[in-house]
C-alpha cells in the first residue's frame, strides 16, 4: 500500500526526480568546475551582460539571499563582478568567466543529450515544459 501512496505523491516523486536529475547534472557539469546552478547563473549573465541581481533571482527562481551568496562565490572565483548603479547591482562576466562559456554550453548540451537518450528528445522537452508550467501554477497560489 505504501508503494502506491509514494507513486501517487507529487512531493515524493518530484524529490525522487530531483535527486536523479541532480546527480546527472552534477556529473555533466563537473568538467566546468561549477555546480549546475552556478553555471546557469553564468549562462544568464552571458545572455545579458549587466543584468540586475534582482532579475537573476527572478530568472533562476531563487531567493535574493541565495542569489547574493551565489554571486559572492562566483566573484570569489573571479568569474563575475558587480557594479552598483544607484540602487541596482549589475552583474558582468570577467574574462575568466567568459572563457568558460564554451565549456558550460557543452555541459548543458551533454546533459540534455544524456536524458534525451533515455527519455527521447521530444519527451524530455515536453516533460521540462510541463514541469515548468506546473511549478508556475503551484508557486502562484495564495
From TrEMBL:
<feature type="domain" description="HTH marR-type">
    <location>
        <begin position="7"/>
        <end position="136"/>
    </location>
</feature>
<keyword id="KW-0804">Transcription</keyword>
<keyword id="KW-0805">Transcription regulation</keyword>
<protein>
    <submittedName>
        <fullName>MarR family transcriptional regulator</fullName>
    </submittedName>
</protein>
<dbReference type="InterPro" id="IPR036388">
    <property type="entry name" value="WH-like_DNA-bd_sf"/>
</dbReference>
<dbReference type="Pfam" id="PF01047">
    <property type="entry name" value="MarR"/>
</dbReference>
<dbReference type="InterPro" id="IPR000835">
    <property type="entry name" value="HTH_MarR-typ"/>
</dbReference>
<keyword id="KW-0238">DNA-binding</keyword>
<dbReference type="InterPro" id="IPR036390">
    <property type="entry name" value="WH_DNA-bd_sf"/>
</dbReference>
Amino acid at each position: 500500500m505504501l508503494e502506491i501512496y509514494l507513486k501517487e505523491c507529487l512531493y515524493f516523486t518530484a524529490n525522487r526526480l530531483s535527486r536523479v536529475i541532480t546527480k546527472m547534472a552534477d556529473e555533466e557539469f563537473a568538467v566546468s568546475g561549477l555546480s549546475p546552478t552556478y553555471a546557469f547563473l553564468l549562462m544568464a549573465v552571458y545572455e545579458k551582460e549587466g543584468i540586475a541581481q534582482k532579475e537573476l533571482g527572478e530568472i533562476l527562481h531563487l531567493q535574493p539571499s541565495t542569489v547574493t551568496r551565489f554571486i559572492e562565490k562566483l566573484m570569489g572565483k573571479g568569474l563575475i563582478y558587480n557594479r552598483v548603479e544607484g540602487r541596482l547591482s549589475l552583474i558582468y562576466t570577467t574574462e575568466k568567466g567568459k572563457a568558460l562559456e564554451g565549456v558550460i554550453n557543452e555541459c548543458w548540451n551533454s546533459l540534455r543529450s544524456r536524458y534525451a537518450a533515455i527519455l527521447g528528445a521530444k519527451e524530455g522537452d515536453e516533460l521540462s515544459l510541463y514541469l515548468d508550467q506546473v511549478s508556475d501554477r503551484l508557486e502562484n497560489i495564495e
